Amino acid sequence: MDPLAGKAVLVTGGSRGIGAAVAVRLAQDGADVALTYLRAEDRARQVVRQITALGRRAVAVPADSGDPAALTAAVDRVAAEYGRLDILVNNAGVFPYGPIEETSVEDVDRALAVHVRGVYVAAQAALRHMAHGGRIVNIGSCFVDRVPYPGLSLYAMSKSALVGLTRALARDLGPRGITVTVVHPGSTDTEMNPADGDGADAERGYIALGRYAAPDEIAATVAHLAGPGGRYITGASIAVDGGFAA
Description:
Blueprint lengths: L7 E4 L5 H12 L3 E6 L3 H13 L4 E5 L5 H15 L4 E4 L14 H22 L8 E5 L13 H21 L5 E7 L14 H5 L10 H12 L10 E4 L6
Parallel strand pairs: 1-2, 1-4, 2-3, 4-5, 5-6, 6-7
C-alpha cells in the first residue's frame, strides 16, 4: 500500500541533494511531486524523470525561494497543476560561511530571505490550498543545536529561526489539522558537503556514528512526518544527525 497515494507535494530546492532524495522518496510512497529549482534545470529534469518512472506525476518549476513573488507563483502553479496541495517541504537553502567580519549585509539578507522569509511565504501561499490533514516539513540544520567550529554564525542564526517559526505555525495551524515540523539533518553526503571533501574527516569526528548520512536517510524521516505515522507530530524539532548533538 502506498501511504501517500493521491497526495500532492511541493519540495522547494528539490533538484539535488536532500531535496531530490525527499522528492523521490515521497513519490515512492505514492505522491505526485513538484519541485522548485533555481539554476540546476538539468538536475531538476532528472528528478522529474525519476518520479515519472515510478508512475507518479511530476513537475519542475523555476523559482528563487528568496523572491516572494516567484515563490508564491510557484506554489499556486503547483496547486493548479495537481488540483490540491497536501504536503509542503521547505528545503531550499544556501550555505553562507566565513568570519562575521567578512559577512556583508547582502549575505545576511540573502540567508534570511531564503531560510526564513521564504519558508514563511511558501507556507502562507500553501495554506490557501491545503486542507485538514496537511503537512509542512521544514529542513533545518544540526548547527541549530551545536556549532563546534567558527564561521557559521549567519547560517546557524538563519536555521535557528525555523525552530521558533515551526512551533508558532504548529499552534496557528493545529485547529485546522495541519502539522508543522522541522528536521535537522547532520552532515549529509551531497554536492554541498561531500563525504570525501576537505574537512570531512574532521567533521566525522563530531558525529557519534562516525559517518555522514546518505540523503535518503534524511528523506526517510521526512516521509514518516508526511505520512500516516506523522499525524500526531507537530511543533517538533527532529535531529537526524548521527549523534552530532549528543
